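Archive entry. Fields below.
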Amino acid sequence: MSETIVDTIIIGIGAAGLLSSIYLARKGQKVLCLFKGLGATAMSSGCFDILGYSYKRSDWLSSFTEGYNDLPSEHPYKILSEGDLHQLDSILKEATVNLGELFDKFLYGNYTKNVLIPTIFGTIKPTAYVQVSMKNAILREDTDMLIIGFRDFYEFNPRLIAHMLKTALKVFDICNIRINYAYLKTQSSTTFPKISLETIVSEIKSILKHKRTDIILFPAIFDSIETVKKIEKELNIHIAELPSTPAYRAGIRLNSFLVNLAEKYGVSLIHADDIKVDLEGRRITRLRVLSHNRILEYKAHNYIIATGDLLGGGLELYTDLISGVAHIKETLLGFEVENVSIENLTKQDFFSRNGHKLSRIGVRINNSARLVDKNGKELVKNAYFVGSIIGGYDYNVEKSGLGVVLVSVWKAVNEIFRGE
Amino acid sequence: MNKKKYDVIIIGGGIVGVGIARDLSMRGLEVALLERYDLATGATGRSHALLHSGGRYVVKDPVSARECAQENLVLRKIASHIIDNVGGLFIGLDVDPPDYAEKFIKGCKETGVKCDELSVKEAIKMEPNLNKNVQRAFLVNDAHIDPFKLTLLNAIDALDAGAKIMTYHEAIVFITNKKDVMGVRVKDNLKNKLKEFYADIIVVAAGAWNRKILSMVNINIEILPNRGTILVISGRIFNRVINRLRMPSDGDIIVPSYETNLLGTTSVNVSDPDDNSPSIAEIRTLFLEGKKLFSDMSNLRILRAYAGPRPLIGRRGGREAPRTFQVFDHEETLRGLISVAGGKLTTYRLMAEKVSDVVSKKLGIRAPCRTHKEPLPGYYDKRDLERLIRKWNFTKLPIAKILMRWGALASTFLSVSTWKNKLVCYCELVTYPEIKFAIQRTFARTIGDIMRRTRATMGPCQGQNCTYKISSTLYDTIENYHYYFIRDLKSHLRRRWAGMRYILNSHQANQAALQLALFNNLGNFNKILVGNDE
Ligand SMILES: Cc1cc2nc3c(=O)[nH]c(=O)nc-3n(C[C@H](O)[C@H](O)[C@H](O)COP(=O)(O)OP(=O)(O)OC[C@H]3O[C@@H](n4cnc5c(N)ncnc54)[C@H](O)[C@@H]3O)c2cc1C
Ligand SMILES: Cc1cc2nc3c(=O)[nH]c(=O)nc-3n(C[C@H](O)[C@H](O)[C@H](O)COP(=O)(O)OP(=O)(O)OC[C@H]3O[C@@H](n4cnc5c(N)ncnc54)[C@H](O)[C@@H]3O)c2cc1C
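PREDICTED_STRUCTURE:
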């Protein structure tokens, strides 16, 4: 049996796992990412949220700094920054400055300042960074926007989006944006339109003859951002993709971008059908990994658990119908996270402004991103829990998903460096 | 103001209401039907979908047993295309009262319910998943009937005979003139608009809601809403209907329905018929009773739970109440007002016939009832399947699914499309032309309506990929859909959530987490209220 020893082993290749591996590998660590598949990152809309809403105000926040104090004390932002806003600010600053490839090139934005972006539903959401292909969709006063769809491509209905967006603009009190829509004549199947660039460009040109606009909004159907740039160049007009649901490309694109970046820095990615963790005392001593029908052994000084929430597979929920209790488990080490009455877990309205308990489940950590029990006692010394596996926050209300990923990753990585 | 006058207005679009609409319009009357939501959103759509052989009631309620046995045969003639003729077993377990079997045999004989005793070995051979503690087994004529389809087809037939079917129209006040009923004032629940409709006769066929509606004109009838809950179990553990051989009680029927088994029911008297969220206690009871028939319950995947209100006659309610029905003529309080309640899904046609007889007599109409003679729309001979597959150049799987949904009605939209590149729902193989057909010809107005008609969003992906596409199609096909688009999306998801919240397990929990993220994180629907929301 072969045994491999590295500096750090990371489990999960969502944003949390990949960001961890990139930061570590760039500083010369030998790292390894084990993964089962893709998780929430690949399903996401590809924007990078930090904090868009707090619990005390109904308005959106123009910066995370406005909402920090209103976050509950068990919020990972509060825990990881030890209740100090300046600490959070410097974590975010260092984490973003140290990864220009992502935050300056692939994304567009600023961690201190939120922008508003229209979505595929014709609604509007605040976020901190958008992918550069969405940059021009950021709402700015006094612009004309033209939403373009394809005939018979019902996944994206420009007329409906325009209709809803007009109302949403009123809700956000933006009055100087004019919304229009048009269809490309080309028929398409219900799978993604496969239309040549030339056709798209020439059809848009003829639409622009009688519809003036500053910006054209598109569904995120292209595999690569380069395509968007090409169309933009040909037409000499700003183009933007709308953040959209899975099956569209934005989330996958973010995930692939991070995979490529990690590989560039020499991170090895290894598919794992099953991982058995050996715990001795309070240290992980070894992983036994079933991969392509072989059992491999891995050892490292440190481990980063970035297995995600229910969607990534890091958490699992099972309800006992007889007792009415929902058991929530961390899947990799098998820790019990919480046992809660199903009635309590699910009583909130699906669209509650204050969020949903189901989105808040997750493991408890301390300020060094280590797993702790109810009393704050560290359960594993050489493992760090990062990303959406952490509980105590609700990214669906706060719009804080990738922000919490980033902050927990940065803390964990620095803990590892400190220990070196 | 539009002062058109109908012969008859029917309030309630459950199986009984549409049954009456069909009957009366086939007798040549001009009929309007008002339903506050979609068709079959009351007890009908939440029933157990069992076409009773009558066996369940032979001991306790022989009149109802006889009615069931008769109507069972009628429906097999006119609606065979929506009946899955699975047959049923009555199973006596060691925990069931041993003397019930003899009463059962005697009752069957007296009421004309056909039953054949099987040996325990035969029964277990038929249903290998049965618990091994079976003591007695009887084979009866139970079947699965799609309650929603049954309602829809009655409505389409009524429409073709000239009836006006108005869904999302809620009766809120009666318009009266001294002792005469003149019409009803109605709220359009999608557009939030008030309207008035007039007629000579008004029939209240709103099941468990009858009491509430009649109290608007101070008529007090003894109808007790009684909630029954059902669990939907993934996969077919049993291929026949399984009944327990005992007095009707909780959790003693399992009905195979498409790719699932329905385990029910419970019986809880409620004061408000809209109180139809299953409780944890009911779910637990069903689970424990189900375990007596099938020991491996704990390893099954339970998909969701739902509940509906039985319209029971009398003051006692619950299991004590008879399952027969009653037609009330309220002549003395308000001339022209009639109501009907009680009964079963299985006996709806008979109920409709009796009501229509009363109405016809009042209006001096001689035309006889024909509803037991004419098959429902979409009727086709199952032997024609192969021919249809060839004609439409389909492969077997989608055509079987589409035929199951629409029967021969499918020819109207199949001819205009090839299905391959027009799929909306990949799990259930639903095409755009089918959705347009559902909107234009079968009164669909919301995502939920489309789901009930086509099963779109019900597959493994639980609507992740098609919910939005459906609303997009609705928007393109219905004027003013934008007015309630967000309300529609939200109430659709809320309803799905209500059905799975207590049985949340890994699969459903992940689906819920994804829906929460899609609509709240990306869509921001929890933070912004757009259009005519809430
Ligand atoms: C629809 C949707 C839209 C969203 N939109 C946004 C947005 O616009 N902006 C934003 O900031 N956030 C958004 N989020 C939230 C954000 O995407 C997540 O919080 C974030 O991606 C979580 O990343 P992660 O790396 O922690 O988990 P994941 O991306 O889920 O990754 C988990 C990884 O762990 C692996 N794994 C799990 N268990 C095992 C195991 N036992 N063995 C091996 N590997 C394992 C998985 O295969 C996967 O690779 C959205 C989320 C969703 C679902
Ligand atoms: C859990 C359960 C399981 C059952 N299983 C079976 C079975 O397996 N086999 C069987 O034969 N029977 C079964 N039944 C009985 C059967 O479902 C009912 O007897 C039958 O469906 C009643 O039909 P209905 O049309 O009278 O009432 P409903 O279907 O309840 O219809 C009444 C309609 O009136 C509408 N309405 C209410 N107020 C208004 C208003 N103000 N304006 C306009 N419309 C209004 C409601 O929205 C509703 O759609 C079951 C019942 C329950 C509850």
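CURATOR_NOTE: The mean pLDDT of chain A is 93.
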